[in-house]
Amino acid sequence: MGTRRLHGFLGASVALVLAVSAATLLGRSWAACDVGVNNAASSFFLVWLFIPGAWTVLLLLWAAAGTLLGDRRRPLIHALALAVTLLGVVWCAISIFWEGSAAPSCPGGVPPWWPSFLPAPGF
Question: Quick check: helix, strand or coil at residue 83?
């Protein structure tokens, strides 16, 4: 039972860190590109809707991947599958809410601080 509890705590922690990181990235991009009504409305959405929703989805995916890949004899494959799944979901969530392309203050839909070697999120 101890291993399951540790695995659950680790999953909750990783999911929370990823959800907060994604919300921070979205908030910074919205603020840089003047997207949305104002910062208060954007932060309300991010804090009260986006972070809990993303945390729940990521935690459920952590549990589902842990159940489907329950074979503990290959921990590297298990960790790689978890990382790819969680980062893929975070990238899709950011891409859905990425609205930099609609703002005239961001040329090409990318905030000025975005690194040029990374593709901008969006579908």
Answer: helix
